[in-house]
Amino acid sequence: MMFRATVLTLYPEMFPGALGLSLAGRALEAGSWSLDAVQIRDFATDRHRTVDDTPAGGGAGMVLRADILAKAIDHASPEGDGRPRLLMSPRGKPLNQERVRELAAGPGAVILCGRFEGVDQRLIESRGLEEVSIGDFILSGGEPAALVLLDAVVRLLPGVMGNQVSGDEESFENGLLEHPHYTRPQLFEDMPIPEILTSGNHAKIAAWRHERALELTAERRPDLIAKRQPRQK
């Protein structure tokens, strides 16, 4: 089953962008996954190809219209399509590695990239959109967020990473941030590679890496450490 991504956007020229390079690009060229960028304006009905209007109740900015977006979504994801419908939005549920793995194991995704002040709420409810956020900050549109999401998903698809084991110890895979890495030269600006890493004792190396991961996580993401603690009855 090939992972199929359809992105609904006002700027289809932003795709594949970085997804056309490196691991994702090679996988795209090899047919391991597919990407289709759909121009939302193609579903507008007036000669100006208008897709937005002023917000009901007043206020600044413009809002993407429900009727136009509904046509675009129904075209990209007809009944029985089976792919989740995502809306990249700063008010969405934070994207995490668990959700990324779920998406990678599925048939693909239909991703709506928001613009302006947002999307008509009726469209979100009627088309069952899952709002997804990549962080507590605001972008000019959902396209960069969609690129981030797809990059995270595509690298987990079968055959994309040359060494599948390389992803098992990465940050968030085991609830911790990743341990520090080192490589040659042995001595860099009077700083040597930690001796344990050149000892050849794989059990001790694994234990050292786990301890460093715990320390880094406790320092930078104590919330992750708290999730690992068993709840007191």
Question: Your description of this structure?
Answer:
The chain is of the alpha/beta class and 233 residues long. The chain has two domains: 3-154, Alpha/beta knot; 169-228, tRNA(m1g37)methyltransferase, domain 2 (Trp Operon Repressor, Chain A), CATH 1.10.1270.20. Helices cover 31% and strands 18% of the residues. The protein contains seven helices and nine strands, in the order βαβββαβαβαβαββαα. It has helices at 22-30, 66-76, 97-104, 121-126, 143-154, 202-220, 222-228; strands at 3-9, 33-39, 52-53, 63-64, 85-94, 108-113, 130-133, 187-188, 191-192. The strands form three sheets. It has a five-stranded parallel beta sheet with strand order 2-1-6-5-7, with helices on both faces. Helix 1 links the parallel strand 1 and strand 2 (33-39). Helix 3 packs across helix 5 and helix 6 crosses helix 7 (222-228). The radius of gyration is 22 Å and the shape is elongated. The relative contact order is 0.14.
Please outline the helices and strands.
Layout: E1 3-9, H1 22-30, E2 33-39, E3 52-53, E4 63-64, H2 66-76, E5 85-94, H3 97-104, E6 108-113, H4 121-126, E7 130-133, H5 143-154, E8 187-188, E9 191-192, H6 202-220, H7 222-228
Parallel strand pairs: 1-2, 1-6, 5-6, 5-7
Antiparallel strand pairs: 3-4, 8-9
Helix pairs in contact: 3-5, 6-7
